[in-house]
Design goal:
Layout (H helix, E strand, L loop, with lengths): L11 H12 L3 H13 L2 H28 L6 H9 L1 H36 L6 H21 L1 H31 L20 H12 L15 H30 L2 H6 L3 H9 L7 H29 L9 E3 L6 H5 L2 H10 L2 H29 L12 H20 L1 H12 L1 H9 L5 H18 L1 E3 L6
Antiparallel strand pairs: 1-2
Helix pairs in contact: 1-7, 1-9, 1-12, 2-3, 2-8, 3-8, 3-9, 3-15, 3-16, 4-5, 4-15, 5-6, 5-12, 5-14, 5-15, 5-17, 6-12, 6-14, 7-9, 7-12, 8-15, 8-16, 15-16, 15-17, 16-17
């Protein structure tokens, strides 16, 4: 009886929770090892963490301006489509669906499974099959919730954001207490240049930027935001500053308690920290970390389903995925589509290889999106955006992203080459399916299958334009 469309249910508090909940996830609990390993010393790793935070702020400010200029949801995809054209936007969509998003979701899911099982098997490592089984169960729970209700997904994200900040506080407080008592021995010779390997620095940045990734999440749900012109910039600035401060203090706490060798040797840094500093909480902190990862999974599914929804609406993805459930008002087909790929990557993947694999494609297209902001400003000088950043911010962010992507070929040629091949494989698909019209017989079969799936899933096209 009521119109079917995606409602504006994301307030400022929910936008802030979405950003915090997406950024503070598995990254700060697994990335310290990757940053330290590829930067070579405690001091340089802290520099990398701070630089990643500043770089994230630059990117977040660029996306905040894009979000006020371009009123559609869809994040990276819609920004590249509107500024650079249909081919690069389809290549992003292709890489995002087949590489970036399933690998990212698999990394977070595996971290969830590892930390959830850690208290039951400590001091031994949890069995890999058990970790993967729990990882998949957690992912399927989030998938079901996002298919069921937008409101409940947003409420869960708000609650889990509070838990994430509590988990960080439980790591920061004991570390700062020890540091105040004079335990600075792990910071002696912090900037050891002999262990610095420059060609590994891009991988250190990938690990650090993975921990900060999530600052762009509001751009995916722009059409569902209440007062987006005001709330996008406000939520972005407050959340990124909060995370930078939290991450820097957390890493200082790690090094104060554990030291460089212990961080490198630990399969779960947060658990090793608690074993050393807070034995009474040995079973609590891993659960808090697991819930933190759970929130990141929730935010990732919530936002990426909107990318598929918008791409379908723009004609670059099958029309079924721009449909909404008639009672739940959720983009059900788009939410469910990631199910098989994430399952496969969780079953066969390793956290650190997956991280390098998807980071190349992700940062390539984020760099192209901010390049698109520069192009959009040049093409449309008449547009008066309610939020505008100085030109050097998108220019410097774009250069750093593309330079890091280029350098990563020297650091990890195998995984990066796989990621590059995945992007390039989208070229023939674009020209054969998107650019060129299908035959009438194929089109009839395609729409027949779409209609049957539409009846099965109880979904219809959005009835009200929301942008």
């Amino acid at each position: 009886e009521e119109a079917i469309f995606l409602r504006k249910k994301i307030t400022l508090v929910r936008a802030f929770s979405l950003l915090i909940g997406s950024m503070v996830g598995s990254g700060i609990f697994i990335s310290p090892k990757g940053v330290l390993k590829n930067s070579g010393s405690v001091g340089f790793s802290l520099v990398v963490w701070f630089a990643c935070g500043v770089l994230s702020m630059f990117g977040a400010l660029c996306y905040a301006e894009l979000g006020t200029r371009i009123t559609k949801s869809g994040g990276h995809y819609i920004y590249i489509l509107e500024t650079l054209g249909p081919l690069p936007s389809f290549l992003f969509l292709w890489a995002e669906f087949f590489a970036i998003r399933p690998a990212n979701s698999a990394v977070v899911s595996l971290a969830f499974g590892r930390y959830m099982l850690e208290p039951f098997f400590a001091p031994c490592a949890a069995p890999v099959p058990a970790v993967k089984l729990v990882s998949l169960l957690g992912y399927y729970m989030v998938l079901t919730l996002n298919s069921w209700s937008v409101t409940w997904s947003a409420r869960l994200q708000t609650a889990l954001s509070v838990i994430k900040l509590l988990a960080l506080a439980l790591i920061i407080v004991p570390g700062m207490m020890l540091l105040a008592q004079g335990h600075t021995e792990n910071f002696q010779d912090a900037f050891d240049r002999q262990s610095l390997v420059l060609d590994k620095l891009p991988l250190a940045f990938y690990a650090g930027m993975f921990a900060y990734s999530g600052w762009f999440q509001t751009s995916f749900v722009r059409e569902e935001l209440v007062r987006p012109e005001r709330n996008i910039p406000l939520a972005v600035i407050v959340s990124v500053i909060t995370v930078i401060v939290g991450y820097m203090l957390t890493n200082v706490s790690y090094y104060t308690v554990l030291g460089m060798q212990d961080v490198l040797a630990s399969p779960a840094v947060a658990v090793s920290f608690v074993q050393r500093a807070f034995k009474s909480l040995i079973s609590v902190v891993p659960v808090l970390v697991a819930l933190s990862c759970f929130g990141t999974m929730n935010g990732g599914i919530f936002t990426f389903s909107r990318t598929l929804f918008v791409a379908s609406r723009e004609g670059q993805w099958p029309p079924l995925f721009s449909m909404i459930h008639i009672r739940r008002h959720t983009p059900l087909p788009a939410v469910m589509l990631m199910f098989p790929l994430v399952t496969a990557m969780v079953c066969i993947g390793d956290i650190y290889h997956l991280m390098n694999f998807f980071s190349f494609s992700r940062w390539l297209f984020i760099g192209l999106a901010t390049l698109g902001l520069i192009v959009h400003r040049h093409r449309h000088p008449e547009l008066r955006s309610p939020f505008k950043v100085p030109l050097f911010v998108p220019v410097s962010f774009t250069i750093i992203c593309l330079f890091t992507v280029a350098m990563s070929f020297y650091s990890d040629p195998v995984n990066i080459s796989i990621g590059c091949t995945m992007v390039l494989s989208g070229f023939p698909v674009y020209y054969l399916i998107i650019h060129r019209q299908m035959s009438s017989r194929c089109r009839s079969l395609f729409y027949y299958l779409t209609h049957k799936l539409q009846l099965l899933l109880e979904v219809v096209q959005q009835e009200i334009k929301t942008y």
